[in-house]
Amino acid sequence: MSDEIELAAIDGTNPLGFLAALGVLDALHRAGKSPTLRWTDDLVPMALVSGVADADGLVAVLETDRARWPSSVVLNGPSGARLDDAKPASDVLSRWAAEVVEAERANADLFAALVSEGGVDGKGNGKPTHLHFTAGQQKFLTMVRELAANVSSERLSEALFGPWREDSPLPSLSWSSHGERLYALRAVNPATDKRLGVPGADWLAFLGLVFFPTCVTTRRDGVLALRTSGCDQPWKRSALRWPLWTIALDRDTTWSLVGDSAVVGDPPTLTPATLRGRGILRVLTAPIRRSDQGGYGSFGGASVLVEAT
User: What is the tens place of the pLDDT at every residue in 151-205?
Assistant: First the structure.
């Protein structure tokens, strides 16, 4: 397509890059554009988006969209109960859900990707998405609000077109598979290191969570459990699965594709020949690992589950 823009820094094999591309698609859709997204068939697949005339116009749309979020109910919680994390007590979770429903649709979409009303942990607090990787002193909503308030046009451009400098002290949501800090490969424990990142990519990836909603299901043993689209249900040892495709898809079609159990189920049921017929290059997976102390999460390196012939 002649009006496509290549996002040269968005690597589809990195969960952070994939989520960021989805965030771009969602923001363009919210701005009233008619965007599409697809991926190049290269060793490092890069995102191609349409819907705006040029790179400057794309960054301008994303900056305008970012400015709407710092005061939103989905990032702050219900009135009188400002939340630091997406783990509120069950009564606060119900109030939060009620106020989100009264807000604009974008809040509801993001809320459904963060928590599910009725989904609680053993202590009765809200159970967040499997893509919630923070713990301890890192508070997810506080970190996202800081990104929403401080990510600049320059940082958005860096996220899209590179190079990724990974030099920002703004919060990192730990979604890059390139940033896993393995103690076994270090002389000292890296836990106290200040993680520097690419805040524009983290912010866009947060918006991309809308494509991975949560829901409450009943396990075989009768216990209620939270599920996150595209992820294995176990909390400690989960995984994210996602497809890369060559046909330009709009936002709603992309939403259907990344949640299609035939594509991202465990395991995917599509054959290599069927993938090719649907314009899908491959389906990838990255393990989700959580520390025993505190539950901090990270992605392992991505691998290919099935590839088109």
Answer: 999 999 999 999 999 999 999 999 999 755 444 445 555 555 667 899 999 999 9
Domain boundaries defined on the chain: 1-309
On whether the CB atoms of residues 5 and 24 are closer than 8 A, the answer is no
CA dist 169 and 94 (Å) reads: 34
| Cβ count within 10 A of residue 159 | 28
Q: Is 12 left (phi over 0), alpha (psi -120 to 50) or beta?
A: alpha
For 11, the enclosing helix (H) or strand (E) is strand 5-11
- Please answer whether residues 198 and 175 qualify as being in contact, where contact means their C-beta atoms are separated by less than 8 angstroms: no
Distance between CA atoms of 91 and 117, rounded to whole angstroms? 10
60 close to 66: Cβ distance less than 8 angstroms: no
C-alpha 33/C-alpha 78 separation (Å) is: 30
Chain center to CA of 308: 25
Distance (Å) of CA 242 to CA 68, 77, 264: 28, 30, 6
Please name the residue that has the structure tokens 């990104």.
147
